[in-house]
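Format notes (please read before filing issues)

Several people have asked whether sequences and structure tokens are stored in separate files. They are not. Every record keeps both together, in the order shown below: the sequence lines, then the token lines. Line labels are part of the format and must not be stripped during preprocessing.
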Amino acid sequence: MTMQTDRLIRRVICLVLMLQSAELFADWREAIPDAHLLGSGDMRIFGFSVYRAQFWTPRLNAGQPLGADVPFALELTYSRAVSRDDLVEASIKEIRRLSPNSLNSELMARWEREMQQAFVDVRAGDRITGVYQPGEGARFYVGENLKHVVKDDAFAKAFFAIWLDPRTRNPELRAQLLGAAKP
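Then the structure lines:
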């Protein structure tokens, strides 16, 4: 093999890898290009801010009900350090609490693995954005980069219910996110 052929093969391989990984570097706005900010608010525990939440959607206006067919992004900008394990544990706990039926341990273990792949240890200023894609599942971005895709609509609905279900632990934040109340 000649030196030129070897270089050409390397360049083609690099190009193919770059094209395949392009979505790994795509901002969440590419998944919902027409999204506008509907609402935002702070999650506080014992008076201390944990994160600032922003809710983005292309098809809702303040006060409209959120249907299962509406895509959206929930962007969390953290105010303090939180470990990935703590994020996953808190999410699992809330999914179980909000579930109308008891979820089997195999399903919960699978969802826990998905969240372990989607989340990272966060520090103050870090941002994780979850994008709900109706009928498909969820995409998770850390900063501007796609971190993980979960192709499970049931998981996506259960996960985002943590903030958006009427039975959420923080109904004031839910109202702010959906544009029904001002922070």
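For reference, the curators noted about this record: The chain is about 35% helix and 25% strand. Confidence is low (pLDDT under 50) at residues 12-25.
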